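EI: anyone free to look at a 115-residue chain?
SC: sure, send it
EI:
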Amino acid sequence: QVQLVESGGGLVQPGGSLRLSCAASGFKFTTYYMNWVRQAPGKGLEWVSQISPRSTTTAYADSVNGRFTISRDNAKNTLYLQMNSLKDEDTAVYYCSTDGSGSNRGQGTQVTVSS
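SC: here you go
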């Protein structure tokens, strides 16, 4: 049974940074592409980033490219998202997911960017 538990969200000022974590269990994490998706208030799910099983390839949405960095530690079954230069529009619930649509995601962690 896939279990994904996100953490690390919070309130941050514009221009600030946060690092999200996602602890994975119940599946062979080391063989999966992993994704971060987000949902802003009143909007649908938005794909943010993806990383390959051995971290050889990464991809980012245009809206976060150059500001966010996805990474993973296969020894710890953990996925990360380093978020820098945060903007108001990054405010959302962030989820890790085994697919890019977010259909298999955790409970999420709230990120609020506000002065």
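EI: The radius of gyration is 13 Å.
SC: 👍
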